[in-house]
Amino acid sequence: MTRADFDAYCASLKATTHVIQWGNASVWKVGGKIFAICSNWGSTAEAAPEGPYINFKCSDLSYQILTEQDGIVPAPYLARAKWVQVRRGSSLSNDDIKTYIRTAHEIIAGKLTKKLRQELGLQ
């Protein structure tokens, strides 16, 4: 998945906002909370062409399953919160990545207050 594809898909989800931060990372939020990031985190100068990497929040079970697959690692700086980083060459298809991003959006949206979810039209 390219960064343009990532951004287009995240933009299609309900009540999202987008910012560029942390060294040109594409950061997507719902209700002010991050659910997905496209970045070059974890790249060395030699590995930078392998990026960008797709990072997203996932369930505890998905985190366990995904991090056992080639090309998917605990996300730098966010692994303790059950985020993964999908690198080029992983076994996930673009459709699979989109499904996980949509689930990340749902997980984060579900943690927002009821009032905020109503204001954003997420209920």
Automatic annotation (TrEMBL):
Molecular function via GO: DNA binding
Name the Pfam families for this protein.
YjbR
Among SUPFAM superfamilies, the record links this protein to: YjbR-like
Q: What is this protein called?
A: MmcQ/YjbR family DNA-binding protein
Q: What keywords tag this UniProt record?
A: DNA-binding
Q: Gene3D superfamilies per the record?
A: 3.90.1150.30
